[in-house]
Write a structure and sequence with these properties.
Blueprint: H1 4-22, E1 42-47, H2 51-55, H3 58-70, H4 72-75, E2 77-82, H5 93-104, H6 109-112, E3 120-121, H7 132-138, H8 140-143, E4 149-152, E5 160-166, E6 169-175, H9 182-194, E7 199-203, H10 218-225, E8 231-236, E9 241-249, E10 252-260, E11 272-278, E12 283-290, E13 295-297, E14 304-307, E15 315-321, E16 323-324, E17 326-332, E18 338-348, E19 351-354, E20 357-364, E21 369-374, E22 377-388, E23 391-401, E24 403-405
Parallel strand pairs: 1-2, 2-3, 6-7, 7-8, 8-10
Antiparallel strand pairs: 1-11, 4-5, 5-6, 9-10, 11-12, 12-13, 12-14, 15-17, 16-24, 17-21, 18-20, 18-22, 19-22, 22-23, 23-24
């Protein structure tokens, strides 16, 4: 038996080598920070006040989300959000069935070519109250396990957030309940501070009036969150029309955009907001378009440009290495220490029993490097995503029990 055991060990090593060569996959990097590659333009979409589509024109609702899926690659659509009032009568189940059918298109693996579909948030508005049916159709259980879903406040999904990345820029988007409580706003404030290295978007149904003055809890929301320097964009609906407001606090600019087309024919004629980011020029080009009519609105409140800041991150992911588990080497190339930087190692694909996702925070002195690690157990082809602050890198690999093979 003593002679057989070393032979078995040697056989396992040889088998691992054969399997790794058979399945050899080269490392692929995406979303590397803009300082490392030429930045790519990308788009986020807002679906303002869909209430009348859910009530009376479900085909227009379907038309909107199907258009998003059809144009995901051409426009590089990385994130979608509602702006509240998903339904007109929140206690009518049929309206939630219509909303569910529309948003389900964004989640389709086959058509989006994404394991969890296109990341999206869906804040409830005043017409969605009480939120019993909202949470039945769009509750925590619908999103749990999706790599982009960050979490929620309390026991419902009335307040939730998602994480996504585009062109080397990391984002957090927080969807707030209609007239959120002080406790919910304090939660959102804490989330923004936790993810202070991510560009932040906040969506709540009622923030601005059509004259761009504050409405509802708009001023309270802004005042509670404005001290977070990563917050640069706020979106809302509720009031019928379009406008925008620009605020500056401690040197950083926050743009607040109102869009609501429900007083148009057929509950809005299918108009939605297209916000395309141009990292090279640090601009957002906003357009208003109806897939249903195949028409743009081009007035000054419907089509305009915004500036935003994409200061390069000093952090780089130097390497992702294989072996027993996953190791990633992170370097601070800047001249200033970075503190409390969030990091995450995520595995998608294969059967990962241990180590599918690991998160943490780290301090990195100027010029220093650190190593983050994740122990894994499983098997199969997988995609490793390492995110540190604003920087993200992915690699294809093979997991064989506790071994991670062919990362590079």
């Amino acid at each position: 038996m003593k002679k057989i055991f070393p032979i078995l060990i040697l056989g396992m090593i040889i088998l691992c080598g054969l399997v790794s060569n058979f399945y050899r996959l080269d490392i692929t990097e995406t979303n590397v920070h803009a300082s490392m590659v030429t930045p790519t333009n990308f788009t986020i979409i807002a679906l303002p006040d869909t209430q009348y589509y859910a009530e009376s024109y479900p085909t227009i609702f379907i038309n909107q989300t199907q258009w998003i899926v059809n144009h995901k690659d051409a426009l590089n659509i990385v994130y979608v959000t509602g702006e509240g009032d998903i339904t007109d009568i929140g206690i009518q189940d049929i309206q939630w069935q219509h909303a569910d059918a529309a948003y389900t298109l964004l989640e389709d693996l086959t058509t989006t070519h994404l394991p969890y579909g296109i990341p999206y948030t869906i804040p409830p508005g005043n017409h969605d109250q009480p939120t019993t049916l909202f949470n039945q159709y769009f509750g925590v259980s619908r999103f749990t396990g999706r790599s982009y879903y960050g979490g929620h406040y309390s026991t419902t999904n009335n307040n939730h957030y998602v994480l996504f990345n585009a062109s080397g820029i990391s984002f957090i988007a927080i969807a707030l309940d209609y007239n959120p409580s002080t406790a919910a706003l304090n939660w959102a404030d804490g989330v923004l501070q936790t993810y202070n290295n991510r560009k932040a978007i906040v969506i709540e149904h009622c923030i601005l009036n059509v004259d761009a003055s504050w409405d509802g809890n708009g001023q309270m929301i802004y005042d509670t969150l404005k001290h977070n320097p990563n917050l640069f964009l706020m979106l809302c609906g509720h009031n019928h029309g379009e406008n925008r407001r620009t605020e500056t606090y401690n040197g950083h600019t926050i743009n607040i955009l109102l869009a609501d087309y429900q007083n148009y024919r057929k509950g809005g004629n299918g108009y939605l907001r297209i916000m395309t980011f141009y990292p090279a020029t640090e601009q957002i080009k906003v357009k208003t378009y109806s897939p249903y009519l195949d028409q743009y609105q081009t007035d000054a409140n419907s089509q305009f440009n915004l500036n935003y800041n994409t200061t390069p991150s000093p952090l780089t992911i130097e390497s992702i290495t294989d072996g027993l588990g996953i190791k990633a080497v992170i370097k601070n190339t800047g001249t200033v220490d970075v503190k409390n930087v969030s990091w995450k190692i995520q595995l998608d694909g294969g059967i990962i029993l241990v180590g599918k996702s690991k998160t943490g925070t780290v301090d990195i002195a100027a010029g220093d490097t650190i190593t983050i690690e994740d122990f894994v157990f499983g098997f199969g082809k997988t995609t490793i995503t390492v995110t540190v602050g604003d920087v993200e890198q992915t690699a294809a690999a093979i997991v064989l029990l506790t071994l991670v093979l062919n990362v590079a």
